[in-house]
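Q: For a teaching handout, I want to show students what a protein-ligand complex looks like in token form. Below are the inputs, and the small molecule is NAP. Please produce the holo structure.
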Amino acid sequence: MKKVIIIGAGPAGLSAGIFLARDKIPTLIIEKFSPGGNMLLTEEIENYPGFPNGISGYKLSENMKEQFLKFGGEIKLGEVERIDLNGNKKIIKLKNGEFLESEFLVIASGSTRKKLQVKGEDDFIGKGVSYCAICDGAFFKEKEVAVIGGGDSALEEAIYLTKFVKTLYLVHRREKLRAKKYLQEEAKNNKKINFILPYIVKEIKGKEKVESIILENTLKEEIIELKVDGIFISAGQKPNSEFLNGIVKTDKNGFIIVNEKMETNIPGIFACGDVIKKSLYQIITAASEGMIAGFFIEKYIENL
Ligand code: NAP
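A: Here is the structure, written as tokens, with NAP included.
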């Protein structure tokens, strides 16, 4: 049985791991794709302390991974299917059928982009529909592209995409944007960005690939068709908590409820990062929550 297993190698999981591994507590992180989590989707991070010239999401991910491995931490690639309890033992079933057991468990599995759930969305994934501007932006050189959403991610992605595209439409369902003021200013000053407010997407149309989107005005009766080659959906996040199997308390949207020590309602199970219910979803908050979880796990182990 492992002492500590962490699910997810984003900034929360890696920070918890760094704290524990540095204190010589055997720690295994299970990661589905590649260490870094959603940081890997961010081209340039400018608000993480210690990097006055900014740092790429990829580089920050690599640095955190290296720091964890340097202290003796272990990373295993795998996808968690479900979690069960047997007394104090946490039993983790992976999708490949393997079972792992641990005394303490940290859920740091992050969040995934929400879908719009409109006609055409699933049909055109990879054929003009994307959820990651950094991954797919370069495919849209000199094209007409729409970004859907009015949050920080939508505006950051819109600004980023203007490096490639000919015209960028920022489609948001309200007249007021949710994003931080400085991002709003930057987007408004960018000549390639056209704001299409307040509209929701009704349908994504095309033959082999995306050709247009049907938009409905949310304040008056009006439907328009916008010719685009691509649509980047940035409508918020949903927590990666389906594997919890109902054993850990969440809110109605699946975000895990924790106390100030990052403890869930189940003794020995902690959670941190974008998978928890909180008011600020940032790399620095995820990292500090990971550290808090690590700290209190260590305190429990000391007092056992
Ligand atoms: P978000 O803040 O939840 O914004 C989601 C946006 O999508 C909102 O504008 C929302 O509209 C819109 N939306 C949701 N469902 C929709 C639907 N079905 N159809 C059309 N539009 C829809 O999500 P986010 O931008 O991914 O950010 C997540 C968190 O990460 C936030 O806390 C954010 O501050 C943080 N973040 C920070 C930075 C940074 O500081 N540089 C960068 C990225 C993310 P409404 O506004 O009408 O609800």
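A: Two things your students might notice: Residues 2-112+237-302 form a domain with the FAD/NAD(P)-binding domain fold (CATH 3.50.50.60). The chain has two domains: 2-112+237-302, 122-233.
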